[in-house]
Amino acid sequence: MGLFCYFHHSSPFFSTLIVLLLLKEVSGATFTFVNKCDYTVWPGILASAGSPKLEATGFELKAGSSRSLEASTGWSGRFWGRTNCNFDDSGRGSCNTGDCGSGEIECNGAGATPPATLAEFTLGSGSQDFYDVSLVDGYNLPMVIDGTGGFGTCASTGCITDLNQLCPAELKAEDGGACKSACEAFATPEYCCSGEYNSPATCRPSMYSQMFKSACPKSYSYAYDDATSTFTCNGADYTITFCPSSPSRKSSRDSPPMIPEPKTKPSGSESFTGMGSGAGTIQGAALSSSWLADMAIGGDSSIATKPSLAFQYASILICIVVLSLVLS
Fold this sequence. Notes:
Elements: H1 2-10, H2 12-26, E1 29-35, E2 42-47, E3 66-71, E4 76-87, E5 93-97, E6 118-122, E7 129-134, E8 143-148, E9 157-159, E10 172-173, E11 178-179, H3 182-186, H4 189-192, H5 207-215, E12 231-233, E13 237-242, H6 284-288, H7 307-327
């Protein structure tokens, strides 16, 4: 490393390499949608206020196919899957679950009609990305988020369980094709965390949110479920998989949960009901005794790439390049 230290002051090529290595940090992220369901899914996309629209706001994703979209740094928004859709040749139509009400394949700034499984993101501007999978607006199909190429915790999250098969009769929707949240089904302040229950101290997990949490322990189950449901990463690209066949190996089940400070969520996330405002906690005893505890997401511990290790790799690469230039 002595030769590296000598050249890094004198070679302009060194500065260029550093800039190239840091470009990923400031260039946003690539979102790749993968459909592993045995049926077609129509992803819907909603950018939050102040974030630009992506290349598409809705599209068709046939079974076994994928599609990628680019988002700029600081982008914030949500994704979901629409099912049992019927669109004509002009793109006009609707979906049985997750419909955005636009009457078209493109959602054009409209959000999902509950119940729908949601993937929510806020990309950092030179800071951490925040992401989660939310069941606060109900559930319609399994979904998992995986981050690649970043550093930090970067844990996978989502819900691989088919909650439609476990949904209580009072929450069933669309002939069993979706499962409502208790808030949507009963519209009471206790279930909706509204009115006098609009705080982490007063709005506690219900038997319905505990059912969701036990089946999908890393997903948001109610509005103040931040402590075990919000995840972070730096400089990653993300894959959103519908109907994942098995838990991702990159799991943080045994890692400490990310606990954001109250009232400090990145701007643009306030309009998303799935990103609760506050550091809510889940009663471990209640969850462990739930009748659905055996359905929890499995997997190995998260493989986090530490910044110091990444810098060492970058330094070695730079040394090799500089030496090759000097010796050529």
